[in-house]
Amino acid sequence: MRIAHVIRRLSFDDWGGTEQVVWNLAKAQRSAGHAVRIFATTALCPTRSETVDGIEIVRFKPIYPWWPMPKSLVAELDRKGGNPFVPGLGKAIRDWKPDVIHCHAMARIAELCLRTANQTTKTVVSLHGGGANVPGEEAKSLKAPTRGRLPWGKMIDYAMGWTRRVPEDFGGIVCVGEDEYEKYKARHPHVLFLPNGVDTRLYAGMTSGTCGTREPEPGPTPSVSSAPLAPPKSLRILCVARIDRQKNQMMLVEWLRRHAEGTVRLVGPVTQPDYRAELEARAAELGVADRLSFAGALKPASRELLDEFAKADVFVLPSRHEPFGIVILEAWASGLPVVASDIGGLGKLCAAHPEAAVTFPPGDASGLDRAIAELERRIMSGESVKMAESARFAALKYDWHELSAILVDFYSAI
Predict the structure, then answer these.
(1) Which residue has better confidence, 142 or 359?
(2) Cys bridge to 203: 52, 196, 257, 333, which one at CB 3.0-4.6 A?
(3) Residue pair 13/299 in contact by the 8 Å Cβ criterion
């Protein structure tokens, strides 16, 4: 089967959950014998064409249809949004003659995928963004960069008759979040709930701050002591997520004010620079800046990222909304217990594995305190190894190769 994955951006130096999903699915499908190619834009990656791990990636320059369009705004839209036109993308997909066009973007890119397909091409769209439960205020903030600018692209949309329904006009809809699955399963004959996954082999033998009792095995794992660790004097909290209002890292800054012994480490690319500035300003105002640190964007499964997991005691994801939460699986694979917002697919994922996670009502500071205190109590009482084993067992249920096989079967059934 020839499978074309289409994504808005794919940069190995600066990526998020959607990019991880596409890349891992592509690798798993190729290892199963399928021909796979990824089509993307040059957003955050000027390299037009490259082959990585045997998978060809072809990129095209995006055009953001707003006026005026200064370079600073282009850079901001490259990171998040912009709804671009992508000249050359449709022809390149058509010339490759895929059996399946799997789109991982919405709006104009999704429309282009629909128009590119012929009568024998199967079309699938994945919903990654939690569109079923994005809060109204956050939806407004996403449009803020282009507010007050002339949307000249709408005239082209109208002239070309781009009025299809997305995602309903695709042959199949893949939902990362259960909320979206519930929304579309009654509207479309081919809807699949497919959670995100993790390559558990990359984390084999890894030890974390809560359970330093196992010798690391060969592979891309960090160098950590195999000696049992004493309970930490100060809880080391890790959050791996885009620096973005959706992820709500501000809750962790406020947590530092209430807990003088804890530290917070934030890992992830900055998609909203003004939000990072707010986090730093608030930390300085509260006098906790010395206990808050930023690691920036780290490549998935890199030694640097695995080392961040290894040094932490608890992983916390306080998102305002989340269709799934792929980093939860990475934390579990690392042996870390998790605290997360009880929201959307994120809450359901954690509820399915209560031995490895504790949830709290989204935005509830007292609930966050109670959840972290519960895990801290377990650490102090010597349950670290048991928690780590439970976390790793939970991650095994979401291996990428198993999920990829389910997806290929879905392609065939459309």
Answers:
(1) 359
(2) 333
(3) yes
